[in-house]
Amino acid sequence: MTRLVRLAVLAGLMAFALPAAAQLAPAEEAAMVHILRDPDRYLVARGPAFSPEERRQAEAAAAARAEAMAAAAAQGERATAVIPGSYTVIPNVTPGFQSNVSFIRFPNFNSDVTTTTTVRIIGDATGIDYGTASVESPPFSSPQLSVTDLYTSIGGVAFDPADTSMTLYLQNNQLLTGVQHVYYNSISDFFENMSVCSYVDGFSYVPMASGVVNVHTSTLQSRFPSVVKVHNRDAVNTVIRLRVHDGPTGNLRGIMQFNAAPNSTYAFSSQQIEAAIGFIPTGNDFHMNVVFDADPMAPPNTIISHTVTNVRVSGSVLNLTTICNIND
User: Fold this and answer.
1) For residues 253 and 129, what is the distance between their CA atoms, to the nearest angstrom?
2) DSSP, res 52
3) CB 42 within 8 A of CB 267
């Protein structure tokens, strides 16, 4: 019988989105919002200036986009539309071949629903069905587990040595649930986002771009510093609000906001985010999720990304942004 995997954050590897602000008491809201008084400090790029006519057209286009997205959100696909037996497939998952280990992250962008993802494990070389694990993700969380953790949770002891890689088959009948696959090499300290997403007609992928997950806190600054970048695509100054949640539990850490100039990019280190919300990480506080304080089906007209610098591997920069839908 499948045993439920309780939330876990892997010590040794670093470890959305919506309660609207109205869900917070006024005093709590006021206490948690920290305004960045000088956002130009974090400005790293600015696009070309708009002419008055171009600005008018851009504002009209932004208004039309907002109206279209609101209409789409009202007609959003529901769990009943998911075809029974469909799977999201994660290939090339490894339990430790040549010191590489796969870690699977299960972000949940729902505001008030804990989601459960089933994970069926199949050996690539042998075809052995090792069983099906279950992973719970509380609201706004993104628990991270290795493929070995998943197997252990259902009573598995050891994989067949021939199976140096696995294929995972995921199912989750709740909207706004995603997955991210990360490789980590314990010798070189190298890791990378190995997520390979598939796409189908008639399904919205907007929510997977309305936040970033498993951003490293400053506890990992010396090895794997994270940077979150936000680009304002609109032709007008925009107040951007970001919610910061604990990665493993989804607990709200705080809210930050800043004024973004038109067509401009802002970069925030973990320390800057933590300072803005008054959060001091301790112990195993390795991961935080940074999401727009908006309906994930209709986020602001912005681009958000998450990169990590690997200090040990010649300062290489890794893209940890991509998140795939489940049941696509």
Assistant:
1) 40
2) H
3) yes
- Count: domains in the chain: 1
Distance, CA of 71 to CA of 296 (rounded, Å): 14
pLDDT band at 69, cuts 50/70/90? low
* Closest-CA residue to 61 (of 290, 233, 192): 233
Q: Whose structure tokens read 């962008």?
A: 109
CA distances from 282 to 217, 218, 279, 287 (A): 9, 9, 10, 11
What Å distances lie between residue 192 and 104, 150, 222, CA to CA? 12, 20, 18
Name the one residue in this structure whose structure tokens are 């939330």: 7
Q: Please state the separation of Cα 192 from the chain's center in Å.
A: 14
Distance, in Å, from the CA atom of 120 to the CA atom of 316, rounded to the nearest integer, reads 33
Residue among 173, 134, 129, 125 at smallest CA distance from 153 = 134
> Which amino acid is located at 222 in the chain?
S
Q: Under the phi-then-psi rule, with left for phi > 0, alpha for psi from -120 to 50, and beta for the rest, what region is 315?
A: left
Q: Which domain holds residue 189?
A: 4-325
Alpha helices in the chain (DSSP H): 26-32, 52-74, 147-153, 270-277
Residue 193 and residue 320 in contact, taking contact as beta carbons nearer than 8 Å: yes
CB distance 114 to 177 below 8 Å? no
d(CA 61, CA 54): 10
Q: Residue with structure tokens 């195993």?
A: 284
CA gap 121, 71 in Å, rounded: 39
pLDDT tens, position by position, 202-225: 777 887 888 999 999 999 989 999
Exposed, middle or buried, 201 (CB in 10 Å: 0-12/13-18/19+)?
A: exposed
**What does the pLDDT average to over 265-281?**
95
**DSSP assignment string, 73-105:** HHT---GGGSPTT--EEEEEE-SSGGGEEEEEE
Residue 115 buriedness (CB in 10 A; 0-12 / 13-18 / 19+): buried
Structure-block tokens of residue 223: 């090895």
